[in-house]
Amino acid sequence: MTDLIMFFAGLFFGILFMFLLFIFSVFLMSFIKKTINYKSFTPNISILIPAFNEEKHIGSCLRSIHNQDYPREKIEVIVVDDGSTDRTKQLAEHFCAKVLLQNHKGKSEALNLGTKHASYDYIFTVDADTILEKDCLKNLVKPFTDSTVGATTGNSKVRNNNSLLGIFQNIEYSYNNLIRGSFSKIFKDGIWFFGALACYRKDVLGKVSGFKIDTLTEDMDIALEIKNAGYRTVNVSNAMGYTMVPSTFKGLYHQRARWWIGTLQALTKNKHLFFEKSPSLKFLFINQFWWSFYSFLSFPIILYQVNYWLPEEGVLSIFNYLFRWFSLAGPFYVIYKIPEWGVSIYNIFGVLSGLISAIMMIFAMWRFKDSLTLKNVFGVFFYFPYTIFLNIIIVFSLLKCHFWEKKYFIR
Length: 411
Prior knowledge:
Blueprint (H helix, E strand, L loop, with lengths): L1 H31 L12 E7 L6 H9 L8 E7 L6 H7 L3 E4 L5 H11 L4 E5 L4 E2 L3 H6 L7 E10 L5 H24 L9 E5 H6 L10 H11 L3 E12 L5 H21 L9 H30 L6 H11 L3 H13 L3 H23 L6 H8 L1 H22 L7
Parallel strand pairs: 1-2, 1-4, 2-3, 6-8
Antiparallel strand pairs: 4-7, 5-8, 6-7
Helix pairs in contact: 1-6, 1-13, 6-13, 6-14, 8-9, 9-15, 10-15, 12-13
């Protein structure tokens, strides 16, 4: 029985390794692919900021917009106050933004209201807790010189990256930014679409009837509908913003549960897109459903394997063993012990998966100008336990949504 379980564990993690190897291959191929140099393009643009009780952050967001390297006379700023009870409206007016008011109806309705009152043909959406790099706007609109591009999305990094969760999320965001950019460059079509920093053709939003309220992630849903309408969505790696991330485990759980379930909802709603020729779309579907499946099985398998090789005695031996299991020390230790242990399916997949992930994380930090500080080295070294926590979130969100409380998620 034990041999059978370990066989299936090896097979399971072998599939995971192949999945990771594919991502790594796309990343490597992105170095060969020539970067598209879009012509300078500075159209009139309406900036929409949906906000609900954002008095702590909206000032810095609006200040970063005013500091953009973009013709000021071509920018219209609209803040949609979604029923705030703080000073969000007053602060927005202080920065001379047009303020629209609505009762607390959610982000989708706020974006639709803002789009309805927008004067220009390009709609830039940004979350109220996000600040933009100076060249973000001008870089994000350049791909629209290609008439097949219906929407663009930039990259986000973490503003509050000093806490334990902030450190891991900062690495995660940079890592995902690298993957998104690689797919967009190779296949000329994006994968994960983040509406916290995005731009759309207004007429395309009209063709897909705007943002919907039937999924928990309106940005992923609208991106898929734009693809369904025959347009591409593009990730712009040099359009950068900095956003606030959850600082508590509870906050992170609620955010990621909403993201995961919302994306599954959007994919299920647009399931016919899986049969399109786009490799990015196929990856998007496979990635979401594979990780949903993986999350259910990985934790018990990992616990079984940890217990299988657990030293029988000695507190220090057990501590060293667990330290290696849940850190980057593990792959290097296995390499060191290969002359004694030999090569097996377990150490091949484990070592290569750990090293490939670490290489991509370190490169991502360099690519997006994040220093390899002590806290970032710590984050990379102990990143594996963070991924286990994210997988647990996926499991609980799926169970909560489908079996316990179908209305658990509130926008």
